[in-house]
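pinging the channel bc i need a second pair of eyes. not urgent but kinda urgent?? the chain im working w is below, pasted from the shared doc
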Amino acid sequence: MAMASFARRKAYLLTRTFSNSNPDALRYTFSLTNFSRGFASSGSDDNDVVIIGGGPGGYVAAIKAAQLGLKTTCIEKRGTLGGTCLNVGCIPSKALLHSSHMFHEAQHSFAHHGVKVSNVEVDLPAMMGQKDKAVANLTKGIEGLFKKNKVTYVKGYGKFISPNEVSVDTIGGGNTVVKGKNIIVATGSDVKSLPGITIDEEKIVSSTGALSLKQIPKKLIVIGAGYIGLEMGSVWARLGSEVTVVEFAPDIVPTMDSEIRRQFQRSLEKQKMKFMLKTKVVGVDSSGDGVKLTVEPAAGGDQTILEADVVLVSAGRNPFTAGLELDKIGVETDKGGRILVNEKFESNVKGVFAIGDVIPGPMLAHKAEEDGVACVEFIAGKHGHVNYDLVPGVVYTHPEVASVGKTEDQVKASGVQYRVGKFPFMANSRAKAIDDAEGLVKIIADKETDKILGVHIMAPNAGELIHEAVLAINYEASSEDIARVCHAHPTMSEALKEAAMATHDKPIHI
C-alpha cells in the first residue's frame, strides 16, 4: 500500500499546480519536466538582474540569478549583507535567546542534573559580544558567497531613475548609476511606529534597540504580543527583568492555533511574564529617569499608569520602500505600501519585480528567500513556485511554538469534517530523559481522506521538528503515512509519529 501511495504521489508531482486557499495570493505552475536549471547569457554590458536590497530575499535572489548565468548586481544601503534578519533581527535575537536560556538553565535546571554551580552571573558585554561576532561572521560569509558566484556588490542607497536604471548614493560619498534589464525590489520592512510614541532606542526601543541594551532593565514593558515581542520579552525575563506585555487584541499571537496559544501563554506566565490583553496604550511619558505608560481597556474604561525602565515597541512592521521613487516610474502599491505583483513577481511596470516583505504575504525571512529564488527563475525563463500554505511559522521562545497549514479554528470555520490527534511530550521518552517535557504535538486531518491539514508543535525544538510536517503536507500525506514511518528512538520526533497515530487510530505510549 505504501509503495502504491508513493507512486501515485510521484506521478502527481509532474502535473501539480500550486495554489493558495487565499484568492488574493500568488499562484504558480510547477512542472518537473521543465524545471531544469540551465544557463543564460547576459548578451550586453548591462546587468541581466539588479537587486535593490541585500537581505534574505535579495542576497539569495542575487546568488541564484548568478548561478543561472545571469549577470547580477546587488545594491545594499546598510554596508553589510543579510538585511534586518541577519544584522538586527533573526540572527542576533536567536543568539541572545540561546545565551539567556543557558543562563536560565544554569540558575534553575543544572542542579536537577547533578551539576552544582554557584554565583552564576550575567556578563552582558560578553553576551552582546558573542552575538555581534556571530552576526559579523555570517555577513562576511555572504560577501564570500557573492565573490564565489561573481555577484557585483554595490554599497549604497538606490533609487529609480527609470525602469532600467538605479541611481546609487554610495556609502563612500559618491554616486553611480547601475543599469539592468530586470530590477528586483527587495528592500524588506521597517519597524511600525505607534501614534504618540517616539522610539529613541534608549528608553523607548524597537526590536533593534532591544538587542543592544547596555544594562538589564529592572522593568520592561513590551507593547505587542506577537512573535518578536514575546521573543525579546523572553530574553530579558530570563536575564532578570520584570516583563509585562501589553496587547490591544484579546489574545497573544492571534494567528496561532487557539489551543496551542492557551498552553503557550500559560508557559510564559510560569516564566513570570505578565500579560495585559485587551489593553490600549493612550500615553507615554519618558521625560523622567524611566518611562510612564498610560493604558486603558481596549473597550474604554479607567486608565492605569505603568512604570518601566525600558519600553519595547513591537507592534509589527511596514514594507520599506522610502526613497526608492517608485512613483516616479509608475509602480503601483496597495494602501499598506506593498508593491502589487503578478504570478511572476513582476509589478505593473515591465522589468520591475518585487519580493519579500515589500509584497503581500507573511513577513518572514524564509518566505523572502523562496520569493527570491522563484522570481529569478521566472526571469531566466524557467518555472518558479512558492506555496504560501506551507510557509512554517516559529516562535523561538522556550518552549518554541511551530506550525504549518491550518489551525483547528480555520478548519472548523471552513465546515470540513476533521479529526485531531495530540501527543504530549510528557509521554515522550527523550523529553523525559532530558527533563524538558513541556508541550505537545497536534495534528489536524480531514476526517474522510485522512489528509493532513495542519500541524502545530509546542516543544523545546519545535522549529526543527516542524519540517517533517511541512514535507508531509507538501506531498499531501495522510496522518497514517507519518504513523507508519519508522522514527528513531529515543527522539523528540517520535511525538509527531504518536500524534499521527492518535489522529489515524490510537497512540502507543499514552
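so The radius of gyration is 24 Å. and Confidence is low (pLDDT under 50) at residues 1-44. — does that match what u expected or am i reading it wrong
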